[in-house]
Amino acid sequence: MAKAQRSFVCQTCGAVYPKWAGRCEDCGAWNSIVEEASTRNTTAAAGGKAQGRRLDLVSLEGRMAPPPRLPSGIEELDRVLGGGIVPGAVLLIGGDPGIGKSTLMLQAAAALADGGREVVYVSGEESVDQIRLRALRLGLAGSPVRLASATSVGDILATVDHAKAPALVIVDSIQTMWVDGLEQAPGTVTQLRAAAQGLIRFAKDRGSALMLIGHVTKDGQIAGPRVLEHMVDAVLYFEGERGHQFRILRAVKNRFGPANEIGVFEMADAGLVPVPNPSALFLADREDGVAGAAVFAGMEGSRPLLVEIQALVAPSGLATPRRAVVGWDGNRLAMLLAVLEARCGLVMSTRDVYLNVAGGLRVQEPAADLAVAAAIVSSELGRPAPRASVFFGEVGLAGEVRAVGHIEARLKEARKLGFERAVMPRTGKDRPAGLAGDELARLADLVGLMGGGPLQRPRKLAG
């Protein structure tokens, strides 16, 4: 028999404590532990034997057909999901407020509904009239999407949990949902877990795809316990700045496709428009012959992507020089500056360094080291990078340039966009026709390569 007890639960990570504490020992968050009511199985707690049925164990051998897919009607969204929406899959979509989560979900709902699928859109934050106004603005008012405004999970399940369940159910947002019988307020760990479990059980039993929109914290993580991300099949994050026209949808977890795949969208008057060739769009405003800029040939999932990296190196009047980074790892920048000073003789300890990845994209792969170094060296020496060149390669602490993967895809993308030269690690592989190359073994070779061309300001080397 279940017995009600009191426990103390961290609202950040979901850790449970027997008494209140000011700081969570698991995640380090302060003032996040809240007293909640819980139920506990007294038989299990007393060491009794749990009752259950015997499981049928099978071997690893066997043939399985790939899961069926529902095309969402949005090419970039299908790319991120691995080819489309899998029936019965549960997706969690997070992002900053106003970045376009609800807009994209409404566009996907309308596209599926126009294709003859039944789609239900439930909002716990907006009224039905507000959703209709957005649909009117996006030109989707004629789509047969079923709308509702509700926050009770019991009411939602009573509406959609039947033999002819909808093909897709969208819940906006999971933090506003609550389960009857629990004392906690919506958004707490207990309510989030119970609401998600009820909705996920419905999706798995009925074969309906479920999309949950989630709030994010100031750190950019989906609000609530991390167990919420473990419960779903795919976790998608919206990236980008409100001031930029680009939006990046990234899959950080996907049980039915590759992780770290991205889709690129452009915010327009008619909503989020898929960008089929994001490299050309990211480089549209690039200027040749400017010191402090280099083009990085990167990989996002299975897609090659070219993006401009900009650096500004200036004398510092501070005891501790300033390091400002947008779109890259600040710790990796500190490491790269140390390598440039220790292995290449460039004075970085008295310089302010500002680094920016143009277009609002966040670059995560180590292959960007060489492009970042090229932008920094170009700004420090006052010399533009070699014309029509792309850079990629990982830099080690000894100053060596290490090989990276997907070299052929990077070079083909660069050649397709009209670049004529690739600065890269030594590989011994053939390059596409019409594309010259400089294969570097040491980071010091990059400094020598950047020494050509007219000076825009004096070169400053140690010693």
Architecture overview:
The protein contains 12 helices and 21 strands. The chain has 463 residues and is of the alpha/beta class. It has a 9-stranded mixed beta sheet with strand order 6-5-7-8-4-9-10-11-12, sandwiched between helices. A hairpin with a 2-residue loop joins strand 11 and strand 12 (271-274).
List keywords for this structure.
25% helix, 26% strand, Rossmann fold, DNA repair, alpha/beta, 463 residues, zinc, RecA_ATP-bd, 21 strands, DNA-binding, 3 domains, Ribosomal Protein S5, domain 2
How do the helices and strands line up, and which of them pair or pack?
Layout: E1 2-10, E2 16-17, E3 33-41, H1 42-45, H2 75-81, E4 90-94, H3 101-114, E5 119-123, H4 128-137, E6 146-149, H5 153-160, E7 168-172, H6 189-206, E8 209-214, H7 227-231, E9 234-239, E10 246-254, E11 262-268, E12 271-274, H8 278-282, E13 293-300, E14 303-315, E15 323-326, H9 330-344, E16 351-357, H10 369-381, E17 389-391, E18 394-395, E19 401-402, H11 407-416, E20 421-425, E21 436-440, H12 443-449
Parallel strand pairs: 4-8, 4-9, 5-6, 5-7, 7-8, 13-17, 15-16, 17-20, 20-21
Antiparallel strand pairs: 1-2, 1-3, 9-10, 10-11, 11-12, 13-14, 14-16, 18-19
